[in-house]
Design brief:
By secondary structure, the chain is α+β, with helices and mostly antiparallel strands. The protein has helices at about 5-20, 40-45, 130-135, 145-155, 160-165, 175-185, 200-220, and strands at about 25-30, 50-55, 60-65, 65-70, 80-85, 95-100, 105-110, 115-120, 260-265, 265-270. The protein has 7 helices and 10 strands. Helix 4 (about 145-155) packs across helix 7 (about 200-220). The strands form 3 sheets. Strands 1-6-7-5 form a 4-stranded antiparallel beta sheet. Strands 2-3-4-8 form a 4-stranded antiparallel beta sheet. A two-stranded antiparallel ribbon has the order 9-10. Bound molecules: zinc ion.
């Protein structure tokens, strides 16, 4: 499943092919994504210039003068850039939507169809107030985010710290993979009640979140050219994990066995020795 680093790398891959360019046509082959793709999407987009592609959490926000196209990769989605050579490149199964520019076809493929493609007209106000975006916590790279923010956000929260990270209302972008990895990096037990984290551990955790996500985005940056062309990879990648999906293997810090537990129906991986408390 794509997490924040994949979405940020996707944004960086698409921006040079879309920003400042005009959409000439839109092809929707299957409207049945997580929510139906608006039947009139083309009428909003054709002839409009993309001002900028921003990211908010795992959403890409394609900003146009008349509104914002909100896209999400869901469980299995990927965007790819295909050269047009004047036409529409042949589509394969799961190629649900194309944004056609003069030179490029930017194509959304999503086998499991949990992704999203929605239109937010300018008249509806700032896109940040859209129901999908309004409840999101701040970005991990927002200058306001840090140990203090995490400390304040976890007071009174008796849920396990891993669950609070996944909820995304304190800080966005720490999905299942990176929750395990950042808690290992910070030496914090994923089962610990969030409210029991003191200021020092909040500082360590906030730093770990930024470090791990920064490293993952850097790893993904090496895949940028895979977004262009029909035979590219789907753009998913993974840090060399310390704990994620390493159950039973030796901890790289202490040599003990990595444990796997289930929290909120999601797998958590951690080292009982390095993350005792
Ligand atoms: Zn260990």
């Amino acid at each position: 499943m794509p997490e924040l680093p994949e979405v940020e790398v996707t944004r960086r891959a698409l921006a040079p092919h879309a920003e400042g360019r005009v959409i000439e046509d839109v092809v929707i082959r299957d409207r049945r994504l997580r929510w139906p793709v608006p039947a009139d999407l083309a009428t909003h987009l054709v002839g409009q210039r993309v001002d900028r592609i921003d990211r908010r959490g795992k959403y890409l926000l394609w900003r146009f003068p008349e509104g914002v196209l909100i896209s999400h990769l869901g469980m299995s989605g990927a965007w790819r850039v295909l050269p047009r050579h004047g036409g529409v490149p042949a589509a394969r199964a799961h190629d649900h939507a194309d944004l056609l520019f003069a030179d490029d076809c930017i194509r959304l493929t999503d086998p499991r169809r949990f992704g999203a493609l929605l239109w937010h007209p300018r008249g509806d106000g700032p896109v940040e107030s859209h129901p999908l975006l309004a409840g999101l916590g701040i970005e991990p790279f927002d200058p306001r985010f840090g140990g203090d923010w995490l400390y304040r956000g976890t007071r009174g929260r008796s849920a396990a710290i891993k669950q609070v990270l996944l909820a995304g209302d304190v800080v966005v972008g720490v999905g299942n993979i990176y929750a395990s990895e950042t808690l290992f990096r910070a030496g914090i037990n994923p089962k610990l009640a969030a409210r029991r984290l003191g200021p020092a551990r909040c500082d360590r955790l906030a730093a770990a979140i930024r470090e791990v996500l920064t490293e993952a985005i850097a790893v993904g940056g090496s895949t940028l050219r895979d977004f262009v062309g029909a035979d590219g990879a789907e753009g998913y990648f993974m840090l060399d994990a310390f704990v994620y999906e390493r159950a039973g293997q030796a901890c790289r810090a202490c040599g003990g066995a990595i444990a796997r537990i289930v929290q909120g129906q999601r797998a958590t991986y951690y080292c009982r020795h390095c993350q005792r408390r």
